[in-house]
Design brief:
- The complex is a heterodimer of chains A (about 120) and B (about 350).
- With about 120 residues, chain A is α/β, with parallel strands linked by helices.
- Chain A is about 45% helix and about 20% strand.
- In chain A, β1, α1 and β2 form a beta-alpha-beta unit.
- In chain B, the strands form 3 sheets. A 5-stranded antiparallel beta sheet of chain B has the order 2-1-5-4-3.
- Chain B is about 45% helix and about 25% strand.
- Chain B is of the alpha+beta class and about 350 residues long.
- The radius of gyration of chain B is 28 Å and the shape is elongated.
- Classes of the chains: A alpha/beta (about 120), B alpha+beta (about 350).
- The interface between A and B is medium-sized, with 17 and 19 residues.
Chain lengths: ~120, ~350
């Protein structure tokens, strides 16, 4: 069965690029542009991993992480942050809220993100 | 004629009119730090009436909600300060200077001048905020361009010729450079807003320098530069710093030294400590700094004309950032020019 990834990213073109790369690698992808919609989807459907932007209109990425922590079904769902924010404080805050990995958009290539996802989701022996 | 003017000025009423018309606040304290005179502007700034405060000692200002900060800044003895910022309230910032004066031939007093810099501070803040927002806004499209180019380079969208690949790679490098520039802009804005240093910890500066040198190995080899690194004091003490910014300072200085030294030149880094501080120095055999440009070298966006010729793309922020970081640590940064090349120094206090 294909692994399922949820992308929460308000910049449609970046989301499109991520989706395209992930589909090529054999993942199934859902895209949303808002934090609220992302949380709703996570609760309704089964995902293996979430790609989360931090600066979002409405509920931001930090809030999404906080909400995920409250739901026992979502606490172990891996979250990779892909954000413009690059301050030490932001990174620490996101990690403390349970983010598995943190990428700064400007410093990371698509293939690095995809490799990281493959690594996290590789079938355990 | 001259005498007449002089006589008129001495008229006490006119004198009062003049000091009350000043746009700066003015206070005179006597030798026991009692307020002897204050002008109209003081009433506006601090929301008090002059008759309430005249004759009071400066420590009694602590009873007045807005004036108490002036007392906290200057202290009981009215320290002599020069252009210190006093935040009276969120919308009033005064630049405060104190100088000694002779009230008459044998009584010494203090003159306090308060200059309203709220507008300048506000404009400065708006400018910094603009830089922050603009830089952030540019990051997303730059990432998009970079990712697009990378996608092309992976050839999943079609085969590329070698020339096409080369051009796309250049595009990616330019994106990376843009990102670096934006990061420097963001750092500058953060520095100017005074929100840069946060996490102080005891660090071994020798290790920090070694790490930085390691990251420049390629550039050093490429230019065949002879790099020396020596710790002149045995058992260099650890120093309390915010590691990341200090690393940035050393990077900036080494980057400059390598960049402006010709192939085959020498760069020497020394660390030593005195009782009070750690001294870092970096000597290069580079192009030097012209005499008439020396006073501007740490100014924002300034580029030396020598440097401009060699590296037209520099942003003139590295030394500005370095100076701000070192001074925020309580240290000093300066340079000396030699017959051949330049030596940059900085100190970090050992508390």
């Amino acid at each position: 069965m294909k692994k399922r990834i949820l992308i929460i990213e308000d910049e449609k073109y970046l989301s499109f690029l991520l989706t395209k790369s992930l589909i090529e690698e054999g993942f199934e992808v859902e895209e949303v542009t808002l934090g609220e919609a992302g949380l709703k989807k996570m609760k309704e459907q089964q995902f293996d991993l979430v790609l989360l932007d931090l600066l979002l209109p409405g509920i931001d990425g930090f809030k999404v992480l906080t909400e995920m922590k409250k739901d026992p079904k979502l606490t172990s769902l891996p979250v990779i942050i892909v954000s413009n924010l690059g301050q030490k404080d932001d990174i620490e805050r996101a990690k403390n809220l349970g983010a598995t990995e943190y990428f700064i958009k400007a410093n990371v290539s698509l293939s690095e993100i995809v490799d990281k996802i493959k690594n996290i989701l590789k079938p355990s022996l | 004629m001259f005498r007449e003017v002089e006589r008129k000025l001495i008229n006490p009423n006119q004198f009062l009119v003049i000091i009350n018309s000043l746009t700066d606040g003015l206070m005179v304290f006597d030798s026991e730090n009692r307020l002897l005179l204050s002008n109209k502007k003081i009433e506006d700034f601090f929301g008090v009436k002059n008759e309430e405060i005249l004759g009071k000692k400066i420590e009694e200002f602590s009873q007045f909600p807005l004036l108490k900060n002036l007392f906290f800044l200057l202290g009981r003895e009215i320290k002599e300060v020069w252009k210190k910022e006093l935040e009276v309230s969120f919308n009033l910032i005064l630049e405060t200077s104190v100088s000694p004066i002779f009230i008459d031939s044998n009584t010494k007093g203090k003159l306090v001048i308060l200059h309203d810099i709220t507008r300048e501070k506000t404009i400065d803040k708006i400018k910094s905020e603009f830089i922050t927002i603009a830089s952030h806004q540019l990051r997303t499209p730059i990432s998009a361009v970079r990712w697009t180019l990378e996608k092309l380079l992976e050839e999943e969208l079609g085969k590329l010729t070698d020339n096409q690949k080369k051009i796309i790679q250049e595009g990616i490098i330019s994106c990376q450079r843009m990102t670096q520039v934006l990061n420097i802009f963001l750092d500058t804005a953060r520095i100017e807003e005074g929100r840069y240093l946060r996490k102080f910890s005891l660090c071994d500066l020798e290790k920090v320098v070694e790490e930085v040198i390691k990251s420049y190995q390629e550039a050093i080899q490429k230019k065949e530069i002879k790099l020396e690194f020596q710790v002149l004091t045995p058992k260099l003490p650890k120093v309390k710093i915010d590691l990341e910014p200090i690393t940035l300072v050393i990077q900036n200085l080494l980057d400059n030294a390598i960049r402006y030294t010709t192939n085959g030149g020498i760069v020497a880094i020394h660390l030593k400590s005195t009782k009070k501080e750690i001294v870092f120095s970096i000597r290069d055999t580079g192009i030097g700094i012209k005499e008439e440009e020396r006073e501007y070298i740490f100014k924002k966006f300034f580029r030396g004309s020598n440097a401009l010729r060699i590296n037209p793309e520099g942003n003139g922020l590295n030394l500005f950032i370095a100076k701000n970081i070192i001074e925020a640590h309580g240290g000093k940064i300066w340079f000396e020019t030699e017959k051949e090349g330049t030596v940059f120094y900085f100190t970090l206090p050992l508390k």
